[in-house]
């Protein structure tokens, strides 16, 4: 029995003779009795492997030795449990000139070309994450063996780039070219078995079979999957031209060439040079160096570092293993499901059984879409426990209340559950608008009370606002921040204030869109203008997505608390629509009507009347009030860090990532220019456009 359990337990990584070898720089290298060299990449200075100049230079010295000594085979794998490699270290390009970038790429290509040219069999063993330059290193080997947990991908497009270390020509050469191009154009990762089906890897095995798979690759029993007829056809330009047209069309549906040039450049390169690896290599280097100097790439790289900074707000562990959620409505059910999917034991309570059942059914669909693996779906559902009697409260490390936004109801809930909380447990609210000081009134221990404001839909919106109040304990805020990071969300610490940060900034944007609609501008044109700026969804459709009832409540509350001059009054017809239960997407009718798939029925902009009478100030009327609210939040101390502010707005509202965030955009556009425009708009449309005094203090920093 003991032997069986040992066999089924998680196995250590197979490293051949390199397991006991001394590290030489970033590699452990040793040769077995058959003359097979095992090289284990295990960076001494990083938690995960990244590929940069020191790693490539060290690899080059080993390759030079192999060229002379002619080993029987070379096996390359990672010594990090997390995976093969997380890609290139983007820091190496920050601040470098175009010439320096090209020189670094040239040197990297020379190393991988020499690896690819070794006369012996070269074998990459891939587990965990194998991304970007890590995948390009694996592609330079003759064979690729993937452990079943491996995921492979080219995420460079997320940084406004395309692969730059040979991926553009090596991936289409070994895999189905259209599949390889799709990987690079979307940035989406591919699981191991899917990677094998398209030819990106040659075998998928469990860790315990790695040594046998290496032997098969060494002795020639492991062969490449032959390219399909379609794949072979892509070696000819007419076929690539046809495929390229389809790729451009699909890419344009997701991103504009003006704002996101990288995928379009990649298509151009492949169409022109896909049949000539050497020409593709030269074009790849030149294009990569050009893209990395673009504003889009610089801003998307900035967004990457913003994400890392927000992750880095986590200090220590939250200690949360068991979560209890009160309220199985849209938000509470989704919070519970997401946490269960992330590995927590979750109990979900509500005053009625029916919402809990609905939440579990919805969770099952989300798990299938996100987790994909049936066993992982099963385990996640096992962790999500219906709890109509609230028995989990006494055992939970964290209780999140997600009840309707009625302060009397929340007070009643707190009075019932606070005596049940175990020592050290935290109590949180998912309120989006109510003051935490008011909610905490009556609590015996307000120091352990915190706001955890998630955004809808929870499975897609990465931000969680960590809302503090005057009586919160420092340990409570630390643990709440750590909890958000532990469930793969990005924490943003904010003070309790009207609308916190995100709702305070989004509401003027949505409210002004309703004013424009009231002025007779077609809703499709309003949404299109915002989407052309880079917003993921126009403000009219966003209002429907949020729900007209919720949008009206939040706008009315903010206007009351911040003053009537800060926001326009809601149109009377909006109140009437709410009374008629035309609430938006959730009821199938709102500002738009919705089809069976929940998609808005929109008139094509080309079919709309002539737009010459549209407000020429439309875009600034939508965007500048949002920036004004962001500056007010910084100036009033709702949030203090400009970079976290930008990150929160990007990950909480989708603010055009290629612009680097609202504060960054304002500084690039020019603060004086924005203040002048707002004064012009105030003269035309009223005091809601008056620039906040914080602009001058922002400029002075």
Secondary-structure topology with pairs:
Elements: H1 2-8, E1 23-24, E2 27-31, E3 36-41, H2 53-69, E4 73-78, E5 83-85, H3 98-117, E6 121-126, E7 129-131, H4 133-139, E8 143-147, E9 151-153, H5 167-174, H6 177-186, E10 190-191, H7 192-197, E11 203-205, H8 210-219, H9 229-233, H10 237-254, H11 261-273, H12 277-292, H13 295-311, E12 322-326, H14 330-341, E13 345-349, H15 353-370, H16 374-383, E14 384-386, E15 398-401, H17 407-417, E16 426-429, H18 436-440, E17 449-454, E18 463-468, H19 474-486, E19 490-495, H20 502-518, H21 523-533, H22 539-546, H23 548-562, H24 572-579, H25 618-635, H26 642-653, H27 662-669, H28 671-685, H29 694-700
Parallel strand pairs: 3-4, 4-6, 5-7, 6-8, 7-9, 8-11, 12-13, 12-15, 13-14, 15-16, 16-17, 18-19
Antiparallel strand pairs: 1-2, 2-3, 9-10, 17-18
Helix pairs in contact: 2-3, 3-12, 4-5, 5-6, 6-11, 10-11, 11-12, 13-26, 14-15, 15-16, 20-22, 20-23, 20-25, 21-25, 22-23, 25-28, 25-29
Domain 3-hydroxyacyl-CoA dehydrogenase C-terminal: 499-594
EC number: 4.2.1.17
Enzyme class: lyase
């Amino acid at each position: 029995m003991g032997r069986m359990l040992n066999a089924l337990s998680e196995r250590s990584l197979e490293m051949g003779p390199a397991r006991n070898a001394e590290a030489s720089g970033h590699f452990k290298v040793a040769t077995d009795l058959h003359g097979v060299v095992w090289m284990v990449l295990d960076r001494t200075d990083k938690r995960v492997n990244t590929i940069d100049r020191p790693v490539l230079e060290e690899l080059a010295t080993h390759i030079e030795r192999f060229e002379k000594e002619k080993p029987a085979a070379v096996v390359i794998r990672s010594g990090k449990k997390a995976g093969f490699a997380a890609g290139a270290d983007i820091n190496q390009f920050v601040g470098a000139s175009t010439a320096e970038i090209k020189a670094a790429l040239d040197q990297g290509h020379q190393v991988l070309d020499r690896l690819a040219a070794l006369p012996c069999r070269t074998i990459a063993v891939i587990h965990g994450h194998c991304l970007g330059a890590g995948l390009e290193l694996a592609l330079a080997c003759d064979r690729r063996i993937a452990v079943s947990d491996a995921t492979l991908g080219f995420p460079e497009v997320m940084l406004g780039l395309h692969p730059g270390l040979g991926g553009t020509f090596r991936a289409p050469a070994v895999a189905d070219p259209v599949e390889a191009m799709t990987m690079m154009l979307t940035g989406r990762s591919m699981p191991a078995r899917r990677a094998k089906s398209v030819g990106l890897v040659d075998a998928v095995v469990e860790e315990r079979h790695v040594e046998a798979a290496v032997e098969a690759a060494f002795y020639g029993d492991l062969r490449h999957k032959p390219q399909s007829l379609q794949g072979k056809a892509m070696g000819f330009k007419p076929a690539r031209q046809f495929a390229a047209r389809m790729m451009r069309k699909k890419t344009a549906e997701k991103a504009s060439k003006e704002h996101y040039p990288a995928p379009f450049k990649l298509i151009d390169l492949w169409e022109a040079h896909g049949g000539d690896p050497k020409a593709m290599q030269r074009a790849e280097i030149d294009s990569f160096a050009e893209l990395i100097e673009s504003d889009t790439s610089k801003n998307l790289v900035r967004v990457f570092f913003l994400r890392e900074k927000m992750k880095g707000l986590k200090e220590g562990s939250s200690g949360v293993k068991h979560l209890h959620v009160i309220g199985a409505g849209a938000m509470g059910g989704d919070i519970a499901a997401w946490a269960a999917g992330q590995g927590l034991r979750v109990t979900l309570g509500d005053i009625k059984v029916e919402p809990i059942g609905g939440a579990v059914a919805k969770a099952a669909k989300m798990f299938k879409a996100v987790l994909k693996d049936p066993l992982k779906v099963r385990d996640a559902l096992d962790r999500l426990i219906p709890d109509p009697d609230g028995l989990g409260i006494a055992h939970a490390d964290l209780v999140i209340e997600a009840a309707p936004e009625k302060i009397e109801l929340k007070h009643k809930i707190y009075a019932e559950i606070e005596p049940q909380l175990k020592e050290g447990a935290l109590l949180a609210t998912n309120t989006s608008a109510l003051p935490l000081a008011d909610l905490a009134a009556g609590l015996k221990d307000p120091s352990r009370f915190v706001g955890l404001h998630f955004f809808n839909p929870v499975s897609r919106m990465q931000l969680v606002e960590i809302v503090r109040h005057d009586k919160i304990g420092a340990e409570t805020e630390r643990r709440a921040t750590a909890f958000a990071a532990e469930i793969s969300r990005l924490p943003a610490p904010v003070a309790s204030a009207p609308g916190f940060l995100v709702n305070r900034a989004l509401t003027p944007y949505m409210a002004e869109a309703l004013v424009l609609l009231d002025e007779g501008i077609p809703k499709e044109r309003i949404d299109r203008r915002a989407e052309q700026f880079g917003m993921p969804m126009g403000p009219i459709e966003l209002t429907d997505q949020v729900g007209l009832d919720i949008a009206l409540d939040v706008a009315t509350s903010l206007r009351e608390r911040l003053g009537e001059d800060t926001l326009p009054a809601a149109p009377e017809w909006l109140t009437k629509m709410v009374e008629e239960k035309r609430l938006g997407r959730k009821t199938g009718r709102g500002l738009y009507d919705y089809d069976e798939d929940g998609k808005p029925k929109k008139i094509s902009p080309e079919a709309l009347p002539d737009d010459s009478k549209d407000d020429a100030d439309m875009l600034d009327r939508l965007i500048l009030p949002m920036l004004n609210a962001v500056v007010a939040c910084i100036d009033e101390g709702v949030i203090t860090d400009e970079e976290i502010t930008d990150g929160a707005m990007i990950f909480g509202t989708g603010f055009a990532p290629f612009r680097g965030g609202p504060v960054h955009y304002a500084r690039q556009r020019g603060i004086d220019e924005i203040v002048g425009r707002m004064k012009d708009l105030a003269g035309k449309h009223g005091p809601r456009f008056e620039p906040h005094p914080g602009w001058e203090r922002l400029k002075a920093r």
